[in-house]
Amino acid sequence: MAFHRIFVIDFAGLGLGEAPDANRFQSVGADTLGHVAVSWPDKLNLPTLQQLGLGNIRVDHPVPGVPPVDHPAGFFGRLHVQAEGNRRATGLREMWDFTGRERTESVFDTLPTAGYDVSLAGPFLSYLQTQDLAQRYQLGSNQDAFRILYDRLYQSASGLTYVVLPDFRFAGSQQDPHAFGESLESADRYLTQVKHDMGANDLLIVTATHADDPTMAVTPTREYLPLLAYSPSRPSAHALGIRRTLADVGATVLENFGLAAYAAGHSFLNEITQ
Question: Is-above-0.85 flag for pTM?
Answer without folding.
Answer: yes
